[in-house]
Amino acid sequence: MTWKIADFNELAAAELYEMLKLRVDVFVVEQNCPYPELDGLDQKSVHLAYRENGKILAYSRLVPGELKYGVPSIGRVIVSPDARGRGLARELMRKSIDFIFNEWQPEEIRLQGQVYLQEFYQSFGFDPISDVYDEDGIPHVDMRLDKRGSPNTSR
């Protein structure tokens, strides 16, 4: 049982394949949402993954500020279907937030969350900053976490 944070160039080909397969299996297949999963951000992002018994069970992509919103963002937050209900999503979010605030030291973090997960993200201090909108057939909302408003991190 290990957590790993790595830049794109530090990932082995098999490891990258497993991360991308998990993302496609959930975001494209399970959610029945054909969209361009490979968006050109992976190569400059940091990848956080939890591995257990040789399999990636949780993953998030941490995107530097200059790439998307002008501030760092958390994306592709995912827990494998067979590992849900174990608290991995909460731990994944805590580790993602901590890494960004501790390593990049921004004033805020953003994310583009599916609306059904809005309360989950709010439990970490994220606040909605947009109206609900359709993104590839799924309702989303943009959210922001101010450095001073992150109650559940270990900074």
Automatic annotation (TrEMBL):
One Gene Ontology MF term: acyltransferase activity, transferring groups other than amino-acyl groups
Family annotation (InterPro entries): Acyl_CoA_acyltransferase, GNAT_dom
This protein's UniProt keywords: Transferase
PROSITE patterns in the cross-refs: GNAT
Listed CDD domains: NAT_SF (cd04301)
Keyword Transferase in annotation: yes
Annotated N-acetyltransferase domain residues: 6-148
Superkingdom to which the source organism belongs: Bacteria
Pfam families the UniProt entry points to: Acetyltransf_10 (PF13673)
Name the UniProt record assigns to this protein: GNAT family N-acetyltransferase
Taxonomic placement: Bacteria, Bacillati, Bacillota, Bacilli, Bacillales
